[in-house]
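Changelog-adjacent note: as of this version, every example in the card shows the full chain rather than a window. The one below runs 179 residues end to end.
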Amino acid sequence: MRHSSSNIDRATPARHWDLSAEGVERAARLAELLARELAIDAVYSSSELKARATAAPIAARAGVTVIEDARLNEHTLDGFLERDAFERGLERYFACPDRVVFGSESADAVYGRLAAALHDVHAPAVVVSHGRALTTLVSRCTGQDPLALWRSLAMPAYVVFDRTAWAVQRIETSPCAPP
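Full-length structure tokens:
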């Protein structure tokens, strides 16, 4: 799952951003939706604040505690980039997956740590991560264009994934978008 809407603060690294008021509301709506649609025995989250804040109402609704795993953290960038510069960097990141060309790690490294984290998840579970990290994993499992997939994911968005077959069953790009 991609975390809910962030409270963007250009002066603060993105890994320290919390959810916006709208993000908190969407996370609560998503918790209700997932409780109706899925059996949830565990909730795993990136150690980043916005992911933990998204995971918290899901875990509360399921009656479980959030299990933090830093392997679910986002692909790290230093500083804030305007949208055009960010997307140009993201294009390089997806086009050169074996090299560090944008941020502090390659797409292959991100995929490896997410795959390792998912291997350790006890299903059925909700796993809360981030847009670039989720896109890196899902695009490799589906063959979808990663940049197009990343652009399609709202905050929050989720993927129903069968980790035993490494197969995507369903992608919900904007489950809590306003009507």
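Structural remarks: Helices lie at 21-37, 49-62, 83-95, 107-119, 131-142, 146-152.
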